[in-house]
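Hallway conversation turned thread

IA: we were arguing at lunch whether anyone had actually written out Peptidase M15C domain-containing protein end to end. Turns out nobody had. So, for the record, here is the sequence (200 residues) and right after it the C-alpha cells. Reply here if something looks off.
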Amino acid sequence: MKSRLKKVLIPLFLGFIGLCYFLFNNQFWTHLNTDNFETLAEYEGENISGLWGRQILVHKKFVPYLNKIEDLAVKNNIELTINQGYRSNKHPLLGAIVKPSKVSNHLAGFAIDFNIKHEGTTYSSKKLKRAQLVNLPKDLQNFIKDIRQEKGLRWGGDFNTQDPVHIDFPINIRNKKTWSNYARLSAIDYENASFKYQFW
C-alpha cells in the first residue's frame, strides 16, 4: 500500500513543484519573442512588473508614458503590478471588473490595468475607487493626483463607469483612425509572434 501511495504522491509532488517553478519563473507560454515586433514593445521596469511575472506588452509610442508612470510610482514610493497592457481582441477577458470597450485603448497598446503595492499592502479596484481616495495612504493619493495632472494620461477612476485600476492615453478619442491602425498593427505583431521558449 505504501509503495503504491509513493508512486502516486511523488509524481504529483514533483509536478506541483514544476508547475510552481514555471508559473513564477519561466512563463514561456505567456512570453512572446518581441525581436521582430514593429509596433508592440516589451516593458520592463524597476517599480512596474507583470502579475506573476507576466510579460508587459504595450505600443512602442506608449512606452514614454509608461516611463512617466514609473517615475511617478518611484516618486510616491509605490509599485505597480500590471494585470494587462496590450490585449488581443481574439482572447476573452476573464474576470473583468469593467466590461471591455470594443474600442478599448488596450487593443492599441495604449493602456494598462494595475494593482498598487505599498508598504506590504496590495490595493485593487475596490480600494482605489474615487470615494475611497481620502482613506488611502498619502503616497497613493499623491500618485493618483500626479496621474490626473499628467498631460495626455487618464485615470480610469475618473470615468463615468469607474475603472480605478486603469490608466491610458486616449488615442481612441483623439483620433479614431489612428487608434484603428494601431490596433490592427498591434494585432499583427501579437498574432504572428512565437513563444520565447522556442528559442532557448
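OS: looked through it. The first strand starts at residue 40 and ends at 43.
IA: good, adding that to the notes. Residues 32-199 form a domain with the Muramoyl-pentapeptide Carboxypeptidase; domain 2 fold (CATH 3.30.1380.10).
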